[in-house]
């Protein structure tokens, strides 16, 4: 029987989480080892963000990041942002992403968020169906993305 566990990531999960990110974004530059520990603490254990994981039989198989942004509107309630939802190819279609997103939303609601946003590539219709099934609506607001010009990183 398959055992699924969803939880906040611990420092020991960093290599598995980074491996999942490489599967999602294989062309991203690696993070220098001397920076990784500090960055992990900031992102995974900081006061405004957390990394969540879903394990399948005690192996990290899926991850996402939840960040909360301070907000002067909506009565001062924070805004949640979920990013980098990824499940390893060999673990897909087992309900891991669904459980992970439900957990992330629960964390956001417990943090008092007025809403949670999640961006997804336009062509990822299967993922969009998953997001809608856990409560996200693709027709409430419209997301826009700006990325820096390549000359900024040259």
Mind explaining what this structure looks like?
There is one protein chain. With 154 residues, this protein is α+β, with helices and mostly antiparallel strands. The protein contains four helices and five strands, in the order βααβββαβα. The chain is globular, with a radius of gyration of 16 Å. The chain starts with a strand and ends in a 21-residue tail after the last helix.
Helix-strand blueprint:
Blueprint: E1 4-8, H1 14-24, H2 33-44, E2 49-56, E3 59-69, E4 79-87, H3 96-110, E5 115-118, H4 125-133
Parallel strand pairs: 4-5
Antiparallel strand pairs: 1-2, 2-3, 3-4
Number of helices: 4
Report mean pLDDT, rounded to a whole number.
92
Taking pLDDT < 50 over at least 5 consecutive residues as the criterion, the unreliable ranges are none
Q: Which strand-content bin applies to the residues?
A: 15-25%
What class do helices, strands and sheet pairing give?
alpha+beta
Radius of gyration, whole Å: 16 Å
- N-to-C span: 50 Å
Major β-sheet, in short?
A: 5 strands, mixed
Q: Please tally the β strands and state the result.
A: 5
The helix fraction, in percent, is 25-40%
Inertia-based shape: globular
Helix and strand element order:
EHHEEEHEH
Biggest sheet strand line-up: 1-2-3-4-5
Summary keywords:
about 150 residues; 4 helices; about 25% strand; 5 strands; alpha+beta
Short account of what is shown:
By secondary structure, this protein is an alpha+beta fold.
């Amino acid at each position: 029987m398959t055992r699924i566990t969803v939880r906040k990531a611990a420092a020991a999960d960093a290599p598995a989480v980074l491996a999942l990110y490489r599967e999602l974004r294989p062309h991203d530059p690696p993070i220098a080892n001397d920076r990784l520990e500090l960055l992990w603490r900031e992102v995974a254990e900081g006061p405004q963000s957390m990394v969540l994981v879903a394990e399948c039989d005690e192996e990290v198989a899926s991850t996402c990041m939840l960040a909360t942004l301070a907000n002067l509107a909506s009565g001062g309630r924070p805004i949640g942002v979920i990013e980098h939802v990824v499940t390893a190819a060999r673990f897909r279609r087992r309900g891991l992403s669904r459980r992970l997103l439900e957990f992330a939303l629960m964390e956001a609601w417990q943090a008092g968020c007025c809403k949670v946003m999640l961006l997804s590539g336009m062509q990822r219709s299967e993922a969009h169906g998953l997001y809608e099934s856990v409560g996200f609506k693709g027709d409430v607001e419209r997301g826009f993305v700006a990325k820096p010009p390549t000359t900024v990183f040259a």
